[in-house]
Amino acid sequence: MRQGSLVGPGPVAKLDPATLPQCSNLHWLGQKPYASLLGHLPGWDVGLMPFALNEAMRYISPTKTPEFLAAGVPVVSTPVADVVHGWGSDGLVEIASGADDVVTAVERLLARPKQAWLARADQRLRGMSWTATWAQMHRLMQDATRTTQQPGREEGHRLPESSL
Predict the structure, then answer these.
(1) Which helix (H) or strand (E) holds 48?
(2) Cβ atoms of 141 and 164 closer than 8 Å
(3) Is residue 105 exposed (0-12), middle (13-18) or buried (19+ Cβ within 10 Å)?
């Protein structure tokens, strides 16, 4: 793999920063204002999402994935379910389970032509928005709160329409 640098902006949760690897090409930036992250992205060849694979992370759906893709930054992620099934299976994100897999995935991303991948990522992102997500969640909540009277069962609790 070619020489490069690893830039790690963001908080270091539940870790002593002194325990992080130290090397001239590792840059742990710590917590940064969200708006400042846009200034970092243009210099990145690959975005890493090295989520821990534990019970606490089992059901996460990282918003970093579409953010990286919208910035045109290819991504390597640990096998978090929503990333694997929502992005990895479509070939938009590389999935890696260990250090050797991460290196291989990064090398693959750096070697591949970016334009075709970027066009597919852009196409996928066009259909996404917080407004669309909210509308879908609202529909699901409405469907879940609609109850039907079944013989021998009490009607379930239903939230008033105005509270949805």
Answers:
(1) strand 47-49
(2) yes
(3) buried
Torsion sign over Cα 30, 44, 106, 79: positive
User: Which CATH code is given to the segment(s) 45-143?
Assistant: 3.40.50.2000
- Which pair of tokens denotes residue 91? 């070939």
| Helix (H) and strand (E) counts in the chain | 5, 5
Tens digits of residue pLDDT in 27-64 = 888 888 888 888 888 888 999 998 888 888 888 888 88
Classified as helix, coil or strand, 104 is: helix
- 18 HSE (CA, 13 A, CB side): 0
pLDDT, one tens digit per residue, over 58-95 is 888 888 899 999 999 999 999 999 999 989 999 999 99
For position 158, what pLDDT does the model report?
57
The domain ranges of the chain are 1-43, 45-143
pLDDT at 118: 94
Per DSSP, what are the bridge partners of residue 7? 27
Q: For 107-129, give the DSSP string.
A: HHHHHS-HHHHHHHHHHHHHT--
